[in-house]
Amino acid sequence: MPENYTDPSGNTEAFRAFANPAEPAAPAAASRTPLYVGAAVVAAVLIVLAVWVALG
Predict the structure, then answer these.
(1) Which of 29, 35, 39, 54 has a CA positioned 20 to 30 A from the CA of residue 21?
(2) Domain of 39?
(3) Is there a domain that residue 53 lies in?
(4) Residue 5: closest CA among 18, 16, 22
């Protein structure tokens, strides 16, 4: 066993950290910018298509 090993039952703080590990942080919400850009491109294509069909 390594020399610097600390037994978690040796003190209360270390034991609590060992017995109740911290919950992982929730991941940040994904950016919606690509969704908005994609929707704008689709809308522009549909408008151009509608104008082309109307004038064609």
Answers:
(1) 29
(2) 32-56
(3) yes
(4) 18
